[in-house]
Amino acid sequence: MQEQRFENMREEAKSKIKDAGLLLFSTKGFTQVSIQDIAKSANISTGLMYRYYKSKKDLFEELVFEATSSMDFLPQMIEYIKDPKIVVLELVSGMLNSMTESFKTARLLSLMSLAFLNDSIDNRDFIMEKFSNLYVQLSKVLEEGQKSGVFRSGNALAMATHLFTTIQGVANAQLVNENYVLPSVDMITAFIIK
Question: Which residues bind DNA (predicted)?
Answer without folding.
Answer: 34-53
